[in-house]
Design a protein that fits this description.
This protein is about 30% helix and about 25% strand. Helix 1 crosses helix 3. It is α+β, with helices and mostly antiparallel strands. The chain contains 3 helices and 6 strands, in the order ββαβαββαβ.
Amino acid sequence: MSDIINPAARGTASPSAGEALTGQAGADAAPETRGRTTIADSVVEKIAGMAAREVAGIHSLGSGMSRTLGAVTDKVPGGRPSVSRGVKVEVGERQAAVDLDVVVEYGVAIVDLAADVRTSVVTAVERMTGLEVVEVNVAVDDVHLPDEDDDEEGSRVQ
C-alpha cells in the first residue's frame, strides 16, 4: 500500500510515463518530513539528569525521600542508580520543560551553579532531541557538607 495518490487518475488507472506522482510521501518530499518522531518523557528525564550531574558542584539529584529510597534500591543486588531521580519533565510536540531537585556541595555559589545547570540541560536536551526547552526550574533541596558521609545515611549499622 502506498500514500502516493494521483488525483487525476482517481485511483482507477496507472499514471502515464513521465507523469510524477505526488502526495503526502511523494518522491519530492524531504526525508525528514516523512513520518513522525515521538520522544518519551523518560528519555528527556535521563538526558536532563545526566546533563545536570555533569555540572561541578552538584552532589546528587532528588529530594530527601527519593534519595533515601534510591539509596536503599541501589544497595539491592541487581539495583542500579536511577539517572532520572530528582528530574521531572513535561514534553510536548515541540517543547519541553524540566524541573530538577538538586543537592549542592557546600561552598558553591548556588546562583552560578543553577545557571550552569540550566545551560547544560538546555544544551543537551535540545541537541539530542530537537525539542525547544522552554524552562529549567532548579530547586535546591539540600547542601552536602564535607563531613557528611552518604554511605551511612539512614542506617546506624553495617
